[in-house]
Amino acid sequence: MVRDFPALPGFYQALFLYIEPVSTISPAILAWFFPGASWFHHELIPSAIAASEPLDARTTMAIWQLGNCYLLLGLISSLVFRAIRDTLPNTPEAQERILGASFTALALADLTHIAASFIGLPDELKYSFDKWNPMTHGNITFVIFLFGARLAWFAGIGRTTYYYRKRAKVD
């Protein structure tokens, strides 16, 4: 059953209620279960050499904790955004205001994630986009797309705005 969600219509609803949660929960599963922490670690920076060396306990823990952060982002997008829709169905201003606060936090996280991922790449890979693997494109290219979609949402592109971009009424 499709529910009306005025503050998150059409494209935005598909992206932020379905695609983004799947794209953030999936890395958690990949890191925790299959192919596992070692594979995940070695995919972070593209290499022609397939590394199969086991990780030390600290690195494994860090990868699992990173997976937990991905899971958290996916659950916030999925569960909190649905709670906004279901709890405030007739209050698009409130929906938009709460989504806007969430999108602000996520947009700031997008920028720092993009920067950390790009800066962490070896110099010979930074501008060799054809040498990036799916993990690198996910961490940089796809996050740039998500950031752009959040900016478009704030700008009111392709949707009716209820709170943002409205002038305060003067009594």
TrEMBL record:
Transmembrane segment boundaries: 12-34, 62-84, 96-119, 139-157
Domain DUF7704 intervals: 7-157
The record's section on InterPro entries has: DUF7704
Carries keyword Transmembrane helix? yes
Q: According to its UniProt record, what is one Pfam family this protein matches?
A: DUF7704
Please provide the record's keywords in A-Z order. Answer: Membrane, Transmembrane, Transmembrane helix
In Swiss-Prot or TrEMBL terms, this protein is called DUF7704 domain-containing protein
Give the species.
Rhizopogon vinicolor AM-OR11-026
